[in-house]
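Question (not urgent): is this output format expected?
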Amino acid sequence: MKKLFDFKIETRPFFYPLHLQPFFKKKNKNSNEHLVESERLGKNGLYIPIGNHLDKSKQKFIAKTLTSSVKELTRK
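Got this back:
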């Protein structure tokens, strides 16, 4: 997300898994359940800008920047 932010592309974390939220943890306090995919998405997922306010050039810029960021991360 840092690289996208450096290019003024606003992002935010995808979501916080429900089973890890305080209310649900308290309600199911005896559960040691791990929902692997939910936890993975909560840790690694992100929202990117979408909507009618983005013209084609901005969409392409976001896609190109995101693609290069992912490639850079996978090379490490």
